[in-house]
Design brief:
globular; about 50% strand; mainly beta
């Protein structure tokens, strides 16, 4: 943060943050909970919501690794050639450059936090 700049010293209420549909998907939404707008320089936090049956296509991020924490629901994450079942309370690390996709396998929303470096993230859909 540059000298003289201020960051927001307040809690962020996720349910009040704008939901945007993720490009190249149907039924998948993103909310930016923490980014440069809140004064963060090194960490961004995003909340993803996948409606029942929603699938995010295979993609990779060549310039960042990320950590995910699953808030609710159940699903399947494909990393490379491996399928990983995820449930509420699980955490998952995805290394930089590893292709991955998501599928909501439950009857309710699948929701997770995705913590990434505070950079312009490169996303390549495969």
């Amino acid at each position: 943060m540059k000298e003289g700049e201020k960051f927001k010293m307040e809690a962020i209420t996720a349910d009040k943050v704008k939901m945007e549909e993720v490009e190249n998907t149907d039924g998948i939404f993103i909310q930016w909970l923490l980014s440069e707008k809140e004064g963060s320089e090194r960490i961004y936090i995003r909340r993803f919501t996948l409606k029942p049956g929603a699938k995010m296509p295979f993609h990779k991020h060549g310039n960042c690794e990320h950590l995910q924490y699953y808030l609710k629901g159940k699903g399947k994450v494909r990393m490379g050639k491996k399928d990983i079942d995820v449930n509420q309370g699980d955490a998952l690390f995805i290394p930089s450059g590893v292709p991955h996709s998501y599928l909501n396998t439950g009857d309710d929303d699948l929701q997770f936090l995705c913590i990434v470096p505070g950079i312009d993230i490169e996303t390549d859909f495969l």
